[in-house]
Amino acid sequence: MDSLKELLAMKLPVLSFWSSMPEAASSYASEFDSLYYFLLWTGLGLFLLIVVPMCWFVMKYHRRDEHQKALSQRDYNYKLEVAWTFLPFIYLAVCFFWGFIGFLDVYTVPVNAKNLRVIGQKWNWTIQYPDEEISVSGQGVVVGVPVDENIIFTMSSQDVLHSFFLPNFRIKQDVLPGRYTTLWLKADKVGEFPIFCAEYCGDNHSNMLAKLKVMPRVEYDAWVDGIKNADISLSPKELGAKLYQTKVCVTCHTTDGTTKIGPSFKGLYGSIAELTSGKKVKVDDSFIKEHILTPSKTPIKGYPQVMPPFQGQLSEVEINALIEFIKSFK
Amino acid sequence: MSTTSQTDSKRLFPLHDHFQRPEQQVDASKLGMWLFLATEILLFGGLFVSYAVYHQLHPELFKAAHHFLDVRLGAFNTVVLLFSSLTVVLAIHGAQQGKREMVLWNLFLTIAAAATFLVVKYFEYKHKFHMGLLPGYYFTNGILISPDESHIFFGIYFLMTGLHGIHVVIGMIVLSWLFYRTYRNEFGPQYYSPLEIGGLYWHLVDIIWIFLFPLLYLIR
Amino acid sequence: MSSNTNYINAKTGFASWALTIDHKRIGLMYLVSIMTFFLVAGVFALLLRTELLTPANTIMDAKRYNQLFTLHGAIMVFLVIIPGIPASLGNFMLPLMLGAKDVAFPRINLLSYYIYLFGAILALSSLWVGAIDTGWTFYTPYSTTTDGGVVLMVTAAFVLGFSGIFTGLNFIVTTHKLRAPGMTWFRMPLFIWGIYATAVIQIMATPVLAITLLLLIIERTVGIGIFDPVLGGDPVLFQHFFWFYSHPAVYIMILPGMAVVSEIVTVFSQKRIFGYKQIAFSSIAIAVLSFLVWGHHMFVSGQSELVGMIFSVLTFLVAIPSGIKIFNWLATMYKGSISLKTPMLWALGFIFLFTIGGITGIFLGTLSVDVHLHDTYFVVAHFHYVMVGGTFMAFMGGLFYWWPKITGKMYSEFWGAASTLMVVIGFNLTFFVQFIMGSQGMPRRYYSYLDQFQIYHQISTVGSYILGLGFVMAIWTLLRALKTGKPATKNPWHAATLEWTHTEVMPIEHNFHEQPTVNEGPYEYH
Ligand code: HEA
Ligand code: HEA
Ligand code: CUA
Ligand SMILES: [Cu+2]
Known about the structure:
The complex is a heterotrimer of chains A (330), B (220) and C (526). With 330 residues, chain A is α+β, with helices and mostly antiparallel strands. Chain A has 2 domains: 1-59 and 109-230, Immunoglobulin-like (Sandwich), CATH 2.60.40; 236-327, Cytochrome c-like domain (Cytochrome Bc1 Complex, Chain D, domain 2, Orthogonal Bundle), CATH 1.10.760. In chain A, 36% of the residues lie in helices and 21% in strands. In chain A, the strands form 3 sheets. A 5-stranded mixed beta sheet of chain A has the order 3-2-1-5-8. In chain A, α2 runs antiparallel to α3 and α5 (236-246) crosses α7 (316-327). Chain B has a single domain, classed as Four Helix Bundle (Hemerythrin (Met), subunit A) (Up-down Bundle). Helices cover 73% and strands 0% of the residues of chain B. Mean pLDDT of chain B is 83; it is low at 1-11. Chain C has 17 helices and no strands. Chains in contact: A-C, B-C. At the A-C interface, α2, α3, β7 and β9 of A face α3, α9, α11, α12 and α13 of C. The complex binds heme-A (HEA) (2 copies), dinuclear copper ion (CUA) and copper (II) ion. One heme-A (HEA) sits between chains C (137, 250, 253-254, 296-297, 315, 318-319, 322-323, 326, 355, 358-359, 361-362, 364-365, 370, 374-375, 379, 382-383, 386-387, 390-391) and A (46, 50, 88, 91-92).
């Protein structure tokens, strides 16, 4: 789980202990911050408007002897009532419009943009790059994007609700099963920024992290090439080992014979598995392939049925690589 | 708490001792019942909203599936319930005039109508069970395979009619209890507010059905 | 009648409690149950905080953590703070303040206590039958697919709902029909107005929750496909249903708190309340508006921007009646004769903390700002400021205020004041840093976190220990008064409402020796 440790050490750069906001990485984020600080300072003002008189009254009109009477029994003042009923409207209207404009910015998707697809799944993100024909996935996966270009994420979920949250861009959107939602950004700073899952989704909700890596265009192209070549140049077993990490098989399966959530891969290949129906089957290539793609069709006895289906997420090459990887643990 | 006097013909008012005047007690229990009915309507309101949402989302499904309901049986049950509302009113009327026989007969008719309603409902349900027209995982009907989410309609159907059915049963219990109290000669022209309150409840059961019937059986 | 019979010693024996229909005894039974569950859920909170000392596994694993915050949230909300003030103090005080002998339907009152108890047992038994890990919001489709005692917990919430409905119904009818002669609507103490508005929300919103939870149970058991997208359902619909109840529910929580503070502020300033009608009507305004803002919990859920806009506008409107109350309390204190006894300290703490909680609510109601802050610790801090800093401060204040009436004993002022201070300090330490880390992007319901947040989490944890100690001290102070407290007088605070002026030190079984009549407002201090 080294990758996770590394991930947890990831920094959301913040200026100081007291400064609230993480570093802004888009022009939208800077605009957002002006509204946020407006609320913060006016809010502080309102707070003082209440607490200062309160303390002052307590000191000034403090009951000094037991029989002291109130100085006045006046209980109504028309002007005051009107003032504190209607003045807040003005303030609230400002907050509302300012917030609404920002909200439209978040959800009005630009026309010229690069499209990425995001798939949320317990408990990792998969990002597909239709133009580049690559995809990356896994816990802590690095999501490369070019700087100063509009990026649209079209998002959906494989299982339960998730939420795609980029604090440095001040944006977030729930990711739903059975429906597409979108989010967009235009990074104006190069760097690495964390991505969180912000909608509770189960045991590993807090580990469903990823990293947005903003790069100059040239570097980005190289990054894409790197991913393309990496997979081709790897041996099947190496690719399998990589997928074992990135597709998070590792969260449920060990390779040393101990049982985590699912059965260990050690000695798995060639063994006999018992299904919940009582049927016994040999764990061979085709069984493994079927189980990876649609685990619910061949439920294994004695384990919770929690393994996610990988149908549509793994290519033939990758499946073969995983089988070779499993095979290597005799 | 209550001090019921059993001096035969004149039924005195059993005033609970935290009330001061009889009207106060009657008003309080009526207001209580009206509020309770409001909560009942809101309870069903949630189901009506789900109905509306899914009707909006899958109109074709509702159209296809509702043919499997028997309009004649539904209509019959509507008439039965309308009739029972009438008899409840007559029962209260009888109490106001001190006609014990009339109260008993009308309550009996109401209970009988409720039972009829449930018997009809039983046959309707039985038919659906046979055909596998059931909610969710249990939907096994082979004829209604398209549109493919037809089970949602039956989910809503069983929920709405089921919850209503439970109300009918509760209503029957309340009515029987009123019958028993009338039989014991506890009500008279001075005191019949339990009858009124029970009657209000029964009207609610009736009204909800009047909404359910067209929504489920008469879709177009 | 001799003056030393009272509602406690009038009857003795177990059955005289278990079968009582005296609103005062029922109120007391609620109080004991609610406080017990508060301590249980409070201990859960401390366990959560302890786990968050380090990003790794400190004392429990992720699964256990998720179960604990769910139980903490669910117990605090459904068993503690929603019944909270109305069922305990409200039950006890409402008939006394109205000059009535009891609530309108005493038996239903007892019934709703047992329904409450039954619901509570169901909720707690989910601890043994596979604890639930969905969060108190039960969002689908997670809640329809996860294992554990979801059905049990949801049934519990369903059952508890009915207890609330019956209590609310009882209070409304009592207020309408059982006021003492001469007690017009505008001579009612403001506490009654607050409880009345709460009851209205309670009977209107709870049935919707009931049906939602029923749908959820049926979804889980037979898969009707209302919420599960795999079966053709819509998971967001659940959120609409849920918040249609649960947003009004947050005002079910705060209105009684505000009601208590209204009483305390005028009595301890010995001055007529400023803007009586404004405060009374603002309760009603809050009750009405509370039904129209639920969508502010769903700004990023995928609902349309237009809907988001409408909900944002309506959300802001709620701030206005809340503000009216606060300003009127300040004006009441102006030129008063302010005594800093313990109840007043809690009330001042309320104003201080609730204002922070409310203003940060404005942050969250602002559309674009909520996009960033939603589901972060900022929200966690917001709702603890309003629920603990608001409602709970008021609850404690109310307990200290009415303790002499309930028990006939005076508590220790020194320990009362010390515990208030302890709670305020511990509370700010615990939750203020959560605003900071939330705005920096720390998501909520996170079992582990990035290293950089550790310092905030540690401060928060230390604060929570102080806070816990403060609450324990406060409760201890009250309990000790039973044994060692000085006997109270009839009206130790010189209040002018009926429960102080027309009853014995401890009220008798039927509250008043004779029917009180009213010929002036509730806050005439002569
Ligand atoms: C006691 C309970 C309580 C109360 C009273 C409130 C009061 C308010 N709440 Fe809060 N809220 C919760 C409990 C409560 N809330 C809970 C439990 C959640 C989270 C649930 C979950 O997800 O688990 C939540 C979440 C929540 C959200 C969703 C956040 C998110 O998930 O993204 C929002 C968004 O609008 C919000 C807004 C408000 C507002 C505007 C008020 C207003 O009513 C506040 C009004 C008060 C004031 C403003 C202060 C006093 C007024 C003045 C001093 C006048 C002058 C001020 C101005 C003109 C601004 N709340
Ligand atoms: C009335 C409502 C209420 C109350 C009173 C509290 C009280 C407290 N809450 Fe809670 N909380 C919620 C309602 C409430 N909470 C809700 C609804 C959630 C959301 C759940 C979800 O996400 O689904 C939540 C979530 C929540 C979280 C976020 C978890 C997460 O998102 O991962 C945290 C973390 O700090 C927290 C902390 C606390 C603390 C420290 C207290 C303290 O105030 C508690 C103080 C009380 C005590 C400590 C009890 C007394 C102590 C003892 C008897 C033991 C003796 C101890 C000593 C002497 C030290 N709460
Ligand atoms: Cu995915 Cu939380
Ligand atoms: Cu809300």
